[in-house]
Each structure stands twice: as structure tokens, then as C-alpha cells.
Input
Amino acid sequence: MTEVMSAAVRALEKAGAGFGDVRTEDRRAFVVRVANEQIQSVNEVHRRGWGIRAFVDGAWGYASGTSGRSTDAVQAARKAVAIARRGAAAGVPPSKLRKMPSTAITLEPKVRIEPRDVAGEEKVAAAMEVCRSEKRQEVANTNASYADSDWTFELANTWGACLKWREVRIRIAGQAVAGEGDRRESAFDFRDGTAGWELVKALDLAAFGRGLAQEAVEMLGAAKPPAGLMSVVTDPGVSGLLAHEVMGHASEGDEIVKKRSFLTDQVGKKVGSALVSMYDDGTYPGAHGSIPFDAEGTPAHKTTVIDRGIYRGFLHSLETSGVLKARPTGNGRAQDFGRRVWVRMTNTYFGAGRDKKDEIVEETKSGVLTRKWISGMEDPVGGSFQAVT
Output
């Protein structure tokens, strides 16, 4: 624990916080964008700072900064406590916390080739190879990008926790836009994960780019899908989108506390076929959403959301687990050190079934088969969702 963090924790305790924590972040990122075999941008980013939370009489106070001086962190800790006290005095609906055991641990990511040890020129060349491979006569625009991030977190709280961990992520993506007359169609895809440069080395970049070009050209001759109510056989990507948008967001504990979810009173009830089980798993090896700990220091967890068609429960932060008398699930997430903690998913997916795709298609008399998702939108209140495929 750094002296800045130690000083802030002591200040929180001295100022009378019922609970408080300090989280420092050191974030580095490298991003490349190319289009039509021309470099559009190369950015290297380094951002460092800390966020302090205080919980007093059921209300939160937040403060953040980028200073490396202990005196500034102490002042911010006192400010967070004062803000929490004002919130409690103003009649903010009181909340509760679920106390977690104190731990002291340091974790390093399981990365074979550190992206920070790879030259920037090599990263640019990888994106350029994808972009170059998308080129063919029918393709009007070729695009590709590469990004990696290396985040180091430290967290200490008034319960005695002292944690340090790193998260390394990498992504390479491409997009080809084909044209014929006035019609334009695009194909987009990516590969990413909590991994190092080995993810890029294992990918045939040229084949990846050519595949996008072929898909975009094929889309020029595609017919519009039928409209109306029908059966849909979803590929794993769209199935994941369905899990995320429909059941995932509606299972987030802050939506449940606010009664803004159609799943609020559904625990123990049937919500789907007995063939369906669904999980949120922050421990899934190599997945993009995997984390050692959430932003509150709770270890990542595999949470069963649906068990053979029966809805089993919600995703939680320390706060929502306290309010709803449940166990924290490691879903307290913050965008960065200057933002508040919300309940958000990690890796949300349906469990694998026994049937093969071809068998399902053969048994489905009519309907459509999805092959790839592009985007989605949730409606946790109504339970509907939008998927663009």
C-alpha cells in the first residue's frame, strides 16, 4: 500500500466514515487506426489517479484526484466524508453494506507476451495487414484497428483489505465496406480478450481480413429478412447478446433496488425452458470481461442467473447485497477512478446445450438463422431488447 493510500484510509477512519475505500489506477493504452492502407491515428495514453469513497449513515461521498501528495488525498478523504454526511442529513434514502472479509493479496495476469514489450511499429503493422487483406475490387473502404491496455489497480479500505492487481486486454478488429451501384454493405469482426500479444500472433491476419471482404461482398446480394413473429435460431454471439441485454441488465442489483427491472419478483420462478441455464462469470479464462476483483475489491465470481429455466438471482455490489441481504458477487464496477460504482456484468452467457446447430436448424420448420451480432439495446423495465445482426 502506498503512503498516499495509507494516509487516505487513516483520514477516513479519523473523520468517522462507517466504511471507506481508496482505489488507485495506473492505466496505459496503445491504439492504432488505419483506413484504406493509411494510418489514421496512433495514440499512446497514460493516466493515473485515485478515487476515495466514504459511507456515512447510509449515504455515499466521493472524491478523486491525480496528485501524488498524501496531503491532497487526506483532504479528499475528509471531503468525501463531509459529502456523505450532507447526503445523510438531506434525507437521501439510506443504504446498507455487506461487509467482506479483509484480504491482502497481489495478482499478476496470465499473459505470455506482454503487449508493453512489443514495439509500436509491430502493432501498426498488424492492423495494416488486416486492412490490406480486405482489399478487392468490390470493396470501397477498408478499415482496421488495434488496441491494448495495461491497468494496475491498488485498493485499500477501512475493513483492512489491501489488494493490488493488473488487467491486460488486447483487441484487433477490421471492417470492409463493399459497394455495388447505390448499395453499400459492411462486414465487421474482432478478436479480443484478457490476453497478451499471443492473441494477435495466433491469428492469421491476412485470412481474417480476406474473410471480412468476402462477407461484405456476399452481403451485396443478400435479401432483407422477413418481418413479424417467427422462430429464430441464434448463433453464440447473438445468444450472448440476448443474455446480456435481456437478462443481464435486468439482473443488476441497482436496477432491482430501484424496482426498475421486470425480474424484481422473479427469483425462484420459471423464466425459460429447462434447457436454458445462464451465468455471469468474471473468472472465465481469457474472456474480455474477466477480472481478478471488482472495483470494490470483491473477488470475481461465477454467478448462476438461470438454472435450468428457473431464475436464481441478481448481480451485486457491496451496497445492493447489503440492501437485499445477499452475498456480493463481484459486480461492483467503475469506469475509472473518478466515477461512482455501479452494478455491471462481467462475462454473461448461456450454458452450452447438447444439440448441434445443424440438428436445431433441421428441426426448425421455419424462421431465420442469425450468424453475427453488430449491436444491441436493453429494456430492463419491459424485458424486451433490440439486436442488430
Notes: The two ends are 47 Å apart (CA to CA). The longest strand covers residues 38-56.
